[in-house]
Description:
By secondary structure, this protein is mainly beta.
Amino acid sequence: MTIQSCLTVQKSHFRTFSSGFLLGKEILAYNYSQTIKCTPNKAYPTTFKAPVHHLKKLFTIPIYNEDEETLEWFTEPILELNESSICPDGFERKGEFCHECNNCQSDICEKGYRKNFETGLCEDIDECIEHTTICQYMCENQIGSYRCYCPIGFKMNNSGQCQDINECHQFQIECGQDRTCFNTRGAYECIDIPCPVGYIRQNENDCLLKCYQRLSSCRPRQPIYIRHRFIALSRLTSSNRTFFSLPIVNRNRTSIKLFDKSNPNMPLPFIIDGIDLKTNQTLFDSHEYELEIYVYNNEFNGKHSSQHHRRRLHTIYVIRINISPFHF
């Protein structure tokens, strides 16, 4: 009798066989052979579960007992290396081995469960521990499943992502005269935006210089427009992200100045690129900025514009930027 296994041979396959004569009440000849394919010395990636070994009945030999009264069966097992970590149909797992059986339980459990091969039971998978990024904010493990939660001010959308609730529109927030509602990520603010003396309100967020129709009578340092803009960004917004563009028609006759109104000497994580306001670094910290962008128009008089040049302050954009503590 010859017995080998894929764990010891170096060939691509081997043949196992058994033959001879059985002595008892009558002479019984038997002969059995089977070819087994191998994958010797194969390296398995560490990210995958190690394969199991199938304890498989390769051949069965009839023998008599000592009294030569009963015909019994002798089974010779052999190890066979399998690519999968799950036992196939007709096998059940015991420890590190798959044993051939007639009425075995399947290794496949329902979704959200995994087979415990020590107890033979299907046990709940804690998805929150095994997949730490499965939820954007908070994960709660449940029997056979899990549930994601969003922080206050957000709701779960159909894709399972946390989506900001616009409280200003949904709850119709009224902040009062000369104030406006600023929807931030997960909250809102009521912001004062009064028009200075000498200006009239053009719309909810913009002020217009009263002497605009008689521009020559206005002081040059007075902007024609004061426009308030509100931008909510999430934490970890990437660098070089454009989030606001100035509506300027004639770029060749315009100059722009940007500074932080509340902290003039503090370096900004934003830059002006042409007419685009964009990030110049990843936004790691939750913070609120109040910026002013000064837009100047270069006015020309006469035939020779180079001899009659005057720069006039056209618009001041007051931009409040809120960076959320959340990354979504």
